[in-house]
Every structure is written in C-alpha cells, then in structure tokens.
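batch_manifest entry 22 of 60
target: Endoribonuclease
source organism: Aurantiacibacter luteus
requested by: lab member K.T.
priority: normal
notes from requester: please return tokens only, no post-processing; we will run our own comparison against the previous entry in this batch. if the run fails, retry once and flag.
--- input ---
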Amino acid sequence: MGYDAKLAELGIELPQVSPALASYVPVRVHGDTAFVSGQLPFIDGELVVGTVGDTVDMDRAVAAARACGLMILAQLRAELGSLDRVALIVKLGGFVASAPHFIEQHKVANGASDLMAEVFGDAGKHARAAVGVPSLPLGAAVEVDAIVALTAG
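--- output ---
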C-alpha cells in the first residue's frame, strides 16, 4: 500500500499548503533528499500561538506539533506529487516556544514524530532534535522542519 493510500486508510486529511512567509521555499529537493522548511501549527485554520508551559498546555502543544507534521506531509505531497516518493524520514527538528521552567520539549515533539511513524511505519522512525526557544515566528507555539530521503522519481 502506498503512503497516499495509507493516509486515506488512517482517515488523515492533509491541510492546504501554506505559502512561505518570508524569503525561502517550503521544500527544496536536492538529489534524493527533500529539505522541508519549518512548518507552523494550524489547527482548524488558526495558528496555535503562545508559550508552552505558560499559555499553552501539553495536550495543545502535542496537537500543535502533530499539525506541523501534517503540514510537512502536505508540503511534501505538493512538491513531489505523491508521498509515495518518500523512502525515509531522516530527521525532524522540533522547536517549542517554552516558558523558562518548561523542560518537556521532547514530549511536545512526539506529536510530529508519532505521526511520521503512524504514516510511514519503520520508514517514519527518525533522528530528532527538540529545542526550547523563547519565541517563534508569528508567536507560534511550535515549529517543525524535516529532512526526507526520496526514491527515484
């Protein structure tokens, strides 16, 4: 079963792709690797903003990271034409706007990581960074980027 079919089987609908918000492209393919720019969390069309551990609770933060993962998949499909060209999720970078006392960025980033494993199985298991930062673009609570290995296309 292809990955596009797997999304349908899981009942996952990808969001409409978000255009770049500054001077960059959402996805850059070089050889057999796709580099996906940091994606922000939109849930029901609204950006999840705030600081995790202060104005954003853990459940909302994990959902925001998952929303970033969904946007990564949407950007990949828009660039590649199909998620079936994905060979391996190599690495995710998770950035969490964190209150000074918040130390569970790794649990927030699981929202995106778990999505990749759900969709791609073993090919979705990846290396990762989960970093706490004082702020993110547009006040977003979470941002996630990705490096993805591709099959020949």
